[in-house]
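Re: weekly structure request thread

Next one in the queue (179 aa):
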Amino acid sequence: MTLDEIVIAIIGLAIAGLVKGATGIGFSTTGLPIIALSIGLDRAMPLVLLPSISSNLSVMLSAGEFRVMLSHYRWLYVALLPGLICGLFLLTRIDTHNAARVLGAIIIAYVAYALIRPGLSVPKTYERWLNAPTGFLNGLLNGLTGSQILPVVPMHFRSASPPTASYSSPTSPSRCLHS
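Done, posted below.
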């Protein structure tokens, strides 16, 4: 990496950290596009991986009731792994510019969702069985783009019966599971 690329990567990670600190979500979704503009998505993804995992674990542990949340979303996490593998496989097979376009679409979709704040909810009867397809799709998009925000964050915040408290906003830092 050149010095310019290193500086851009540091700036991207710092901005992503500020967003994560202010909102509780969005580390990868913020940092990846900034860094990818300089060095490409395929080289940016590994740079964001460790800080993203660390910040997610920190938020999960500080939010409390870790075991309850893990139990509630266990099928989401189980399904996330094969989705992640499929997304990583796709990333090796397609042009990274197309993966970057998908990342751009994810960012635009989430911004629109956050601005519109539709009054959607997941009925309790469907909530548990939607965890697996949501986890798979989230893993697929995560493996392909590095973004962890869709579809898991909107589903999590729109569940009819979250395992603990009610959630007022898709950017609530105290209850976010992914970023």
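Residues 165-179 have pLDDT under 50 and may be disordered. DSSP finds eight helices and no strands in the chain.
Next request, please.
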